[in-house]
Amino acid sequence: MLMEWLTAVEDLSLVRAFRTHANLYAALSAAHILAFAVLVGALAVHHVTLLRGADPTGTPALALAAPALGVALATGVLLFAARATLYIENPAMLAKLGVIALAIANVALFHFARHRSTRLRAASAATSLAAWSTVIVLGRWIAFV
Question: pTM, whole model, 2 decimals?
Answer without folding.
Answer: 0.88
